[in-house]
Amino acid sequence: MKPINVGLIGIGTVGGGTWTVLKRNAEEITRRAGRPIRITAVADKNVELAKQVTGGAARVTDDAFSLVTDPEIDIIVELIGGYGVAKELVMQAIANGKHVVTANKALLAVHGTEIFNAAQEKGVMVAFEAAVAGGIPVIKALREGLSANRIEWAAGIINGTTNFILSEMRDKGLSFDEVLKEAQRLGYAEADPTFDIEGVDAAHKATLIASIAYGIPVQFDKAYIEGITKLEASDIKYAEQLGYRIKLLGIAKRREKGIELRVHPTLIPAKRLIANVEGAMNAVVVKGDAVGTTLYYGKGAGAEPTASAVIADLVDVTRLATADPEHRVPHLAFQPDAMSNLPILPMSEVETGYYLRLRVEDKPGVLADVTRILADQAISIDAMLQREPEEGEGETDIIILTHVCKESSADAAIVKIEGLAAQKGKVKRIRLEELQ
Question: What is the pTM of this model?
Answer without folding.
Answer: 0.95
